[in-house]
Design goal:
Length: about 450
């Protein structure tokens, strides 16, 4: 393992070692299919997925390197071809600029395109023409992960874009993702990762944290999450059952997002859950039809970190709509969307469920699906009063074509946390890297030969 702070001489030593190993074939990296190319892995999802991905790529014949930023990253990493970066913001930008210029990786793979270290990496890679694959939780779940060029969500190259009208729907039935039930595994990995990171990180390493919290407070919040999960189970079930049986297509669904989510930063356009709750409820009390209900769904990962329950109750009572407002923190979002009169979100991927089920959708911030054909796009200035009577829904063929296209362009089957899902995701990612590499190789060969030969080579 190579340890790097902000010392330039250590960078040169890292690059020398990297070149020596590459010329020697990196040992076990020569096994399996021979695929030329150097891959740089940055931060991955909590858990061992990037460790497994590094070994999978190496077995495919790639020269794979991993940068770790804190002890949590080290815990879930391979001991070989590993660089331990211990600097801060300025150090990372300076070090990575020289590293990319000297080592010239073919592709950088990262999870969470808006993490501080990854924003810098994407900027530098873009200037140097280095490909970046950005991973994220699946836009469509369960059973899929998101894999896109450069960025995800509002930073996605697909953001706000619709497929060509000439694109024909796939003849085969749409692929159904495997339900890996990975929430428990993800929570366990996260507890270990953040615990180790908080206890053992030192100095400037903390500047590159993508999530900041006090360890004891975080432990308390997760304990409260577990308590609320089981204490409110019966009440959640009763509310959901009542909505489905007696309020079909007469309730508006508002899925609240995790406050620490990268989507809730610049892409939220100044909105947060508290503002969404208070503003939408005031409008609901003043302008929504009396025969409708407003349902807030607290995110399961936010359940112990917020006090939205008491805030919503107080606001509803103050506005005189406490008998028309419901709060849940569990249940199938797809099932609720299927029976809702409409959905309001800042920019949650839950909006894709509204598109799938054909209900009106109001998106306040920037989102990958924010297109006026698919949704009411507020650009930070929502008109809630008009939305209660909105009937804007894209045609079924348009919605089906869009979702099939998004799945084909941005998703890979698999999971980040369960063993079988990780295996499937690694294979899908390998194919993404391999296909691009083969395309580039074919383009170089075609450009380097004479026109007469080019025609013969195609045949």
């Amino acid at each position: 393992m190579k340890v790097v702070t902000d010392n330039t001489s250590q960078l040169r030593q890292s690059l020398t070692l990297l070149d020596q190993l590459s010329s020697a074939g990196s040992g076990s990296c020569s096994k399996g299919r021979s695929v030329s190319g150097r891959v740089l892995l940055l931060q991955g999802p909590v858990g061992p997925f990037f460790k497994r991905l590094q070994r999978h790529f190496a077995a495919e014949g790639m020269d794979v390197w991993r940068v770790c930023f804190n002890p949590g990253d080290l815990l879930y990493s391979c001991p070989e071809n590993r660089i331990y970066f211990r600097g801060g913001f300025a150090d990372w930008r300076r070090w990575l600029r020289e590293f990319l210029g000297s080592s010239r990786p073919d592709v950088i793979v990262l999870f969470g395109s808006e993490r501080p270290a990854h924003r810098i990496a994407r900027q530098l890679a873009g200037r140097l023409g280095i490909r970046v694959l950005s991973l994220e939780e699946g836009y469509i779940r369960p059973g899929f992960i998101t894999v896109e060029e450069s960025g995800n969500n509002a930073s996605s190259p697909l953001a706000g874009v619709l497929p060509e009208v000439s694109l024909k729907p796939c003849d085969e039935p749409p692929e159904v993702g495997t339900h890996y039930k990975s929430l428990g595994r993800m929570s366990s990995y996260g507890a270990v990762y953040y615990g180790i990171r908080s206890l053992l990180s030192i100095g400037r390493q903390k500047q590159l944290y993508h999530r900041r919290f006090e360890l004891l407070q975080e432990c308390f919040c997760w304990g409260r999450n577990v308590y609320r999960r089981f204490a409110g189970q019966g009440k959640n079930f009763t509310i959901i059952q009542g909505l489905l049986e007696h309020w079909d297509r007469r309730f508006f669904l508002v899925p609240l997002q995790v406050s620490a989510d990268s989507n809730m930063q610049a892409a939220a356009l100044g909105w947060n859950s508290i503002r969404l709750i208070s503003t939408s409820m005031r409008s609901f009390a003043a302008a929504a039809p009396l025969h409708t209900r407003l349902v807030f769904k607290i995110h399961p990962l936010e359940r112990g970190h917020c006090d939205y329950l008491s805030f919503i109750h107080e606001e509803a009572q103050r506005l005189g709509v406490s008998d028309r407002v419901d709060i849940i923190d569990t249940g199938s979002l797809g099932l609720l969307a299927r029976h809702a009169a409409g959905m309001i979100t800042i920019n949650s991927t839950s909006g894709l469920s509204a598109i799938h089920h054909g209900i009106p959708l109001l998106v306040i911030g920037k989102a990958v699906y924010a297109n006026p054909v698919l949704a009411v796009c507020a650009h930070g200035q929502p008109d809630f009063d008009h939305f209660w009577a909105c009937r804007h829904i894209a045609a079924p063929a348009v919605r089906r074509r869009y979702l099939e296209w998004l799945k084909r362009e941005a998703l890979v089957a698999g999971d980040f946390y369960v063993e079988e899902g990780m295996k499937q995701a690694c294979q899908g990612l390998s194919e993404k890297v391999l296909v691009h590499s083969l395309d580039e190789s074919a383009e170089v060969v075609t450009m380097s030969i004479e026109p007469e030969t080019r025609r013969a080579s195609v045949v």
